[in-house]
Task: inverse folding
């Protein structure tokens, strides 16, 4: 029998807490008024309404309610005194998990109700709003003795899904699998997953057997949600933090802001650690593309680095307020095997069945917040993301219009030999490898300018990067990423690469000028095709233009040995030049 689990997470501390707590209270009340859970859970000491929404033990269940299913046995208390699985009907439990309030609800379907109907009922229950929450997650459970394949998409509600989600399978132990359906936007408030496996495994994974402790998947989603919540707030902080580079800025204000960022860093580091522990408890591992668990971990590591850098930069400004060197660093996080969304629009449009949890809001507008002052008691939990204002993503490193910029083009070997599905998969694999290489430079895909072709992509790097370091990370990072992803697919991805340096000019169809022409000619050259044909095991062959080589290799590079480059003439169409061939060892 299919079922649907909801987990909603609200902060208990900080300026956002009152509104978030109010929304959780409305959602809890709707579990009774809308979903009919107006009975106490048999055998449980928990009452329907909590006596204290904030106090009590730091980790504890504080309320529970249910609507028994027609003709189904109510869940019995387990031998160890735990909450036990829902035996039918609907059930909800409210927990305090340290500084977060967690509402969990399970809806069990029947002959006349499936995921579509249950999803609509949750939409109705969440009509009071969830935009102040840390986040929500909906888990669609499909009991199956053969969990290797996801359920039919037609059985699921109509909502936006991540392209290629079927390829990014997660295994939970030996008997359950999961897939994340929702678009993996960096600011996402709502996550949707589908899990399959034996009923007992799904219950232990998503609902648990004890009252007080969160089940493994809910614990994981709670900490992943905190990381995304902090990112939304930190993104909104960029405008205000940037204003602090002005000469004569008040030292106390800088100290307060640095302390606030340091507090956020502590929360992020703790959540990243707990996220890894929860993933281990769920025995989760990727089994396909860049799975959501790996994506969350990388995002968490990136966010902690950004918060650490920003806090350190503010402290440096505080020590030298008369002549600050630069604004604190900004940035956008590493993408998975898909473009990170820079549009701060809602993650999912409302469906005809009702407003979706997470579809009402956008990232915050820091201009609407008061800057902290010395002695502020706001703590590390910042103000709630504003549900009506939008803020742009942090601007990428400056790229003057006429500055010289390094760029590269990659092209896949054997792309046209694939069918439509194979070409779609190859595009995702190319994008994954490129984002991995950019990550080695501490860049995200959204930090760059891009021009995409079906079988490849041209990437224009920011103007203020360290060229020798960037080329070294590009070459070695691409080679490492190709080797890593080779083990996940029957056919290895093999790339031709061309890299150059010059001016880049926007044009009607993307970008123009001799530099982008040059990288495309290098990629199409006979030299690269010949070396790849001669060695079927070779995954990458790159040509570095004679314009880029002197700035990155010829004058010395600790990460690149000039002896590894071979001078190579390139002649294709009207292009004739010298380039430098590199292949990984």
Result:
């Amino acid at each position: 029998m299919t079922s649907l689990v909801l987990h909603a997470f609200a902060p208990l501390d900080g300026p956002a807490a009152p509104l978030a707590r109010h929304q959780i209270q409305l959602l809890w009340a709707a579990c009774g008024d809308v979903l009919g859970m107006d009975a106490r859970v048999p055998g449980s000491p928990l009452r329907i309404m909590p006596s204290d929404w904030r106090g009590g033990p730091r980790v504890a269940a504080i309320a529970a309610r249910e609507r028994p299913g027609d003709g189904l046995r109510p869940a019995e208390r387990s031998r160890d005194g735990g909450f036990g699985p829902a035996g039918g009907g609907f059930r909800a439990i409210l927990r305090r998990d340290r500084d977060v309030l967690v509402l969990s609800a399970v809806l069990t379907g029947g002959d006349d109700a499936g995921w579509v109907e249950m999803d609509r009922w949750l939409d109705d229950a969440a009509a009071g709003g969830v935009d102040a929450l840390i986040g929500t997650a909906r888990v669609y459970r499909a009991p199956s003795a053969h969990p290797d394949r996801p359920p039919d998409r037609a059985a699921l509600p109509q909502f936006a899904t991540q392209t290629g989600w079927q390829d990014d399978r997660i295994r939970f132990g030996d008997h359950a699998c999961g897939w994340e359906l929702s678009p993996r936007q960096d600011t996402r408030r709502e996550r949707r997953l589908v899990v399959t496996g034996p009923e007992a495994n799904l219950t232990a994974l998503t609902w648990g057997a004890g009252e007080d402790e969160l089940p493994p998947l809910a614990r994981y989603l709670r900490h992943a949600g905190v990381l995304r919540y902090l990112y939304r707030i930190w993104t909104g902080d960029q405008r205000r933090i940037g204003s602090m580079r002005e000469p004569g800025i008040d030292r106390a204000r800088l100290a307060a802001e640095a302390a606030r960022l340091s507090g956020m860093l502590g929360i992020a580091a703790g959540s990243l650690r707990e996220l890894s522990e929860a993933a281990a408890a769920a025995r989760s591992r990727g089994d396909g593309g860049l799975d959501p668990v790996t994506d969350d971990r990388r995002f968490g590591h990136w966010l902690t680095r950004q918060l650490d850098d920003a806090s350190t930069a503010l402290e440096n400004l505080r020590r030298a307020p008369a002549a600050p060197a630069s604004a604190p660093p900004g940035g956008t996080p590493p993408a998975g095997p898909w473009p990170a969304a820079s549009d701060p629009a809602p993650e999912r449009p409302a469906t005809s069945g009702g407003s979706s949890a997470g579809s009402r809001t956008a990232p915050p507008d820091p201009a609407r917040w008061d800057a902290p002052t010395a002695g502020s008691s706001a703590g590390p939990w910042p103000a709630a993301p504003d549900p009506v204002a939008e803020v742009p993503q942090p601007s990428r490193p400056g790229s003057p219009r006429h500055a010289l910029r390094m760029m590269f083009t990659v092209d896949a070997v054997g792309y046209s030999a694939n069918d439509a599905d194979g070409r779609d998969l190859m595009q995702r694999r190319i994008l994954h490898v490129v984002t991995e290489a950019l990550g080695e430079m501490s860049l995200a895909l959204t930090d760059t300018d891009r021009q995409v072709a079906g079988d490849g992509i041209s990437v224009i790097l920011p103007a203020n990067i360290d060229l020798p370091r960037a080329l070294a990370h590009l070459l070695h990072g691409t080679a490492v990423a190709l080797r890593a992803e080779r083990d996940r697919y029957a056919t290895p991805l093999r790339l031709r690469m061309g890299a150059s340096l010059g001016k880049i000019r926007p044009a009607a169809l993307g970008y123009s000028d001799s530099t982008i022409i040059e990288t495309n000619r290098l990629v199409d050259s006979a030299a690269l095709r010949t070396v790849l044909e001669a060695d079927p095991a070779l995954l990458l062959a790159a040509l570095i233009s004679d314009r880029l080589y002197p700035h990155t290799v010829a004058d010395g590079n600790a990460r690149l040995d000039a002896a590894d480059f071979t001078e190579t003439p390139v002649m294709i169409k009207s292009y004739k030049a010298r380039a430098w061939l590199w292949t990984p060892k």
Summary: The CA atoms of residues 253 and 373 lie 5 Å apart.
